[in-house]
Amino acid sequence: MAPTPGLQADCEALLRRFQDKDSVRFEDFAAIWRDLKFGTIFHGKMGHLEMSNFTREAFALSWRYFLPPFTFQIRVGALYLLYGLFFSQRCQPKQQIRIALKDWDEVMQFQQDLTNAQHYDAAYVLRKLRLEKAFHFTAMPKPLSYRIKRKMPSTEFKEEFKEPQDRVTKLITSDVLEEMLNVHDHYQKMKCAISAEKSKPDRALDLIKNDFVGDVRSVVLEHQQWLQDRKKSASATRGSVDVTDETEGSSQESEGSERAKALAKIKSKSYSAVAQASKSRRHRQVRLESSDSVLDKKTKKQLKDTGNTKSLKSAGKRSSRAKGGPQPMKQESAPAYLSMPVIAEEEEEGSQSSDAEFPTPKRTSTC
């Protein structure tokens, strides 16, 4: 069964706001619950089967945050979340929270920690769930089927909710320090027993410091204080990171618009500037043709051809009148693929040069 979209995001948003409160009081969680209107999560038009599946999925997701390795505050928030979901569900009879037998020891240890730390509101919530028979004890955390392989979807949780791995605290606990102190006292007594003076050991046997256990305890306390300060600084910078992300997003949008405007300006300049060629090389000049000129290309070419023929005829008539008689004009047919006009000045120069080479004979008058 595919996970319900948005369910994990809503639960994590609720737990994140509860974590920002830096408290484990139920009244703070209830205020956030009412602010987000989380009680309406079961509202909507759903059938009985669909409602039951959704309720079980919500319980399973919240139960994962209740177990280690999440922090103490997140686990208390998950307990409150289970309490709210169980009593706001609309299933009849009520769906129960699935819990494996191997996890029950963690629940009992967590209840003992709540009582020792005097968090009585959280301890009351856990006891209330037990009295209402909200837990369904099973052998395995997930349901299994005979000869059926089910690919369970993997869920990724936020790292900020998890308890940081502290190997120093795991290695050196209060029991270990007490045992080290007993061993150190016994070691000092043995040195006194083998020394000449029974009151104090010989200086030759002073191989370790007398306050060795006290130094170890102070180092462990300093390490725990450093972890707490680091956690506080990380939570303080989380809000500033969200603000900087918003400002960076707006600055990136403004930079993108400025870059687009600059590119459009450069493109308009490059297409609007056309180099002017000389008169003799005008046929090589680059011309920018728009879509309108491309559509009217054929009509312009026809008008150009008719204008060229008219200019040639008028030039031939002027030359024949100037010389006193009709002169044969040599016409050359231009190829069809050339669209350049024939220049009239060159034709006139050609006609003059032909007259110079072959002069016309003078007429003699006869009486």
From TrEMBL:
Residues 227-367 are annotated as: Disordered. Residues 269-278 have a biased composition (Polar residues). Residues 286-297 have a biased composition (Basic and acidic residues). Signal peptide: none annotated. One of its GO terms (cellular component) is nucleoplasm. One of its GO terms (biological process) is snRNA transcription by RNA polymerase III. It holds the Pfam family SNAPC1. One of its GO terms (molecular function) is sequence-specific DNA binding. This is Small nuclear RNA activating complex polypeptide 1. It comes from Ornithorhynchus anatinus.
